[in-house]
Amino acid sequence: MSRVDAHLVLSGTDIGTRAVPDDLSAGSVISIDASDVRYVVRSVGRADDGVLRIDVERSPLGSEPAAVDVVVAGATTRRVASTDGVDVALHHLGGDGPPVLICHATGFHGLAYAPFAQTLTRAHSVWAADLRGHGATAPPANGDFAWAGMGRDVAAVVEHIREYDGRPLHAFGHSMGGAAILFAELAAPGTFAGAYFFEPIVFPPEAVLSEGEQFMRDAARARRANFPDREAAFVRYGSRPPLQALRDDVLASYVQHGFVDTADGDVTLACEPSSESATFGAPNKLLLADVEGVDLLVAVAAGRRSDAGSPADFAPELVKRLENAVLDEQRMLGHFGPLEAPDRIAERVMRFFADGPGAITPG
Fold first, then answer.
1. 119 and 224 share a domain?
2. Is CB count within 10 Å lower at the N or C end of the chain?
3. pLDDT digit string (tens) for 120-133?
């Protein structure tokens, strides 16, 4: 089968030029990236400049197996006792190199990072934790979602990983997950050999309980929790921001493992809206002053910045406060960068862990 270059538009969003089969027509089902997730062709035509244009939309979840399913199917999950009666779900996603622990953003879970982990397993043994109230880990019985507790979850799984694999442990933290790693490192300096953070939530004092944070708390509380099935959730999330930004295999893994079946036959979010809201609204988050002088080899990645203030805006100052840190600017990505471009960010993580700050080059 021969292939031609075509300009693709996914659910109204331009996604650039891809090589596609030359015999496509409306109703065809194609894969357009290495994830092997399928897209339905809605129309085929040519733009005014003569360039072939193909409009596609996401196909129903599970219509075709994604390559990342192999990673998840091969995962092993164990329970690790933390504090506050929490048993943390800790997933081993494969690989036999030096160990790396993935800590997720608020509202997500470890298996949402399976496409990211798939690349990391080329060089590392990859672990991913579901922090309290997220994924397969139940919320604390006392309802305390203070991020210091997330840090204690991290410390608990680190101890377990060390029993399994005594080699120096690196960490990857996204958003809240980066803060949880820093909480663990502050409590026990030397816990990690190094860390790569993507927009970790470490606030300047004036940003605490900002309008943006309160908006996230209120939006999470109002989030729709129930859907008829996972396919309906996948289609809804994939058609609107912010989750529209996720690569399809990431979104599929998030939905597949971020919902639980109910007795009524529908599905509901594993991370309940009340838990996500309480996580966003938890007091006593890390401030820049709290991490002053932390001596940990760190890369801090920052995506697009905004006039309204965002975690990307805090990253340069965080790098200045840390003893041994470097800034990795990724302006083409948003706050969901590791879930938008998991291969790209995983490659940068691997280079940083292998070669140190010198591996961080512009781009």
1. yes
2. N
3. 999 999 999 999 99
